[in-house]
Design goal:
Length: about 150
Amino acid sequence: MAFPVPAFAPDIIRQITEAVPQLTALGATVLRVEHRRTALRLDWREDLVGDPWSGLLHGGVITTLLDSASGMASLSSAGAVMQIATLDLRIDYLRPARPREAVIAEAECYHMTRSIAFVRGHAYHEDGTEIATSTAAFMLQSSALPAGTKP
């Protein structure tokens, strides 16, 4: 059973996203939650670097950021708070994230069925330089949230 929410509940989606341990550990912050669209920001940190010689962020950090922004976009489109799971995630890396610069990930849910959300995303620097693009599909779980989870 899904928990019904108003047609679009950005505050609830923001609270759920900010409670994800992996995003908390990365230090990602929610910039925007709109109907079908979301944005996250991640400031560069030395402990997130994949190559200490160049100072480049680890690719997994960009993957996590795009996956999370895409999941948020799915939730903002669903009209209910529910569990979601990444079914498919494709990321095309265009260039490495520049050292010591923040990365922003935006995602948009462009199509939805009763059980699947389709999302496109991109990661970029504040000056608009693209780092990666993504395409994802998310399964929408209509069963209740786990015990102890508040909608």
